[in-house]
């Protein structure tokens, strides 16, 4: 039987600082093909090119990867400030309604870093613009220097709710992860269940309550070294199985 098709949301990017492109990191493509056992398809993050219905008609699941621009605070009722950083309004306009519709239809969704924040905002959460400025919080941002290996190295523990969805998935109540983000959940929406936290209390793992299908997100970047990582691999395998199950049912 043909493998499921996983849509990976692209990011606006300038090649050589002048040529517009939609880009997806190779590690996201590789993890879909090699760990999810699915066909990766890059979806341009622009509703002028891809509609929600287009995406749902083609894909059996969606990965919402990280990206440098942040979700615009207008999407969760806050005023824009300098601390909120750069934005990609086209991605906001496509992905937020896509998340809600995919979840409603039971189409698997997995959010990674910015994608985690998109899932949270899509279901009523608000975000801190810069969590390292909050009292008692650590700096979760990517180290400014070093190799990719050093930037993506595992840096802190995430404590999972005992017996929760992530604890059952990983077979453990604690996992060790990388951290490369500036924003974080302020107030979780009514259906957004925080199922894991960093040592400073920052939300790191969520799922959508009442979703008929796979609807989970992590604030870290599990796509790094996913095939060999004991935390990343079961997450992507579970997502891949959910997408395969949807394809079989179609």
TrEMBL record:
It catalyses: 4-(gamma-L-glutamylamino)butanoate + H2O = 4-aminobutanoate + L-glutamate. Pathway: Amine and polyamine degradation; putrescine degradation; 4-aminobutanoate from putrescine: step 4/4. GO terms for cellular component: cytosol. One of its GO terms (molecular function) is gamma-glutamyl-gamma-aminobutyrate hydrolase activity. It comes from the Bacteria. Keywords: Hydrolase. SUPFAM superfamilies: Class I glutamine amidotransferase-like. Its EC number is 3.5.1.94. CDD domains: GATase1_2. GO terms for biological process: polyamine catabolic process. It is an enzyme of class 3 (hydrolase). Belongs to the peptidase C26 family. Involved in the breakdown of putrescine via hydrolysis of the gamma-glutamyl linkage of gamma-glutamyl-gamma-aminobutyrate. PANTHER family: GLUTAMINE AMIDOTRANSFERASE PB2B2.05-RELATED. This is gamma-glutamyl-gamma-aminobutyrate hydrolase. It comes from Pontivivens ytuae.
């Amino acid at each position: 039987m043909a493998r499921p098709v996983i849509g990976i949301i692209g990011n606006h990017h300038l090649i050589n600082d002048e040529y517009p492109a939609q880009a997806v990191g190779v590690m996201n493509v590789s993890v879909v093909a090699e760990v999810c056992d699915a066909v990766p398809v890059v979806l341009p993050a622009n509703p002028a090119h891809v509609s929600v219905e287009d995406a749902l008609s083609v894909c059996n699941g969606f990965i919402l990867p990280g990206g440098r621009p942040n979700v615009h605070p207008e999407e969760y009722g806050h005023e824009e400030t300098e601390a909120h950083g750069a934005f990609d309004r086209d991605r906001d306009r496509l992905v937020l309604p896509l998340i809600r519709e995919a979840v409603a239809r039971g189409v698997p969704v997995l959010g990674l870093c910015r994608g985690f924040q998109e899932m949270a905002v899509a279901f009523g959460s608000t975000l801190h613009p810069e969590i390292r400025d909050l009292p008692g919080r650590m700096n979760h941002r990517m180290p400014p220097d070093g190799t990719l290996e050093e930037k993506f190295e595992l840096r802190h523990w995430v404590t999972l709710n005992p017996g929760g969805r992530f604890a059952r998935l990983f077979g453990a109540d604690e996992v060790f992860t990388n951290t490369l983000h500036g924003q974080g959940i302020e107030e979780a929406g009514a259906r957004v269940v925080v199922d894991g936290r960093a040592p400073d209390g920052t939300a790191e793992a969520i799922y959508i309550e009442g979703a008929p299908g796979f609807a989970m997100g992590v604030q870290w970047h599990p796509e790094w070294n996913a095939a060999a990582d004991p935390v990343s691999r079961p997450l992507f395998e579970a997502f891949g199985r959910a997408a395969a199950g949807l394809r079989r049912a179609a």
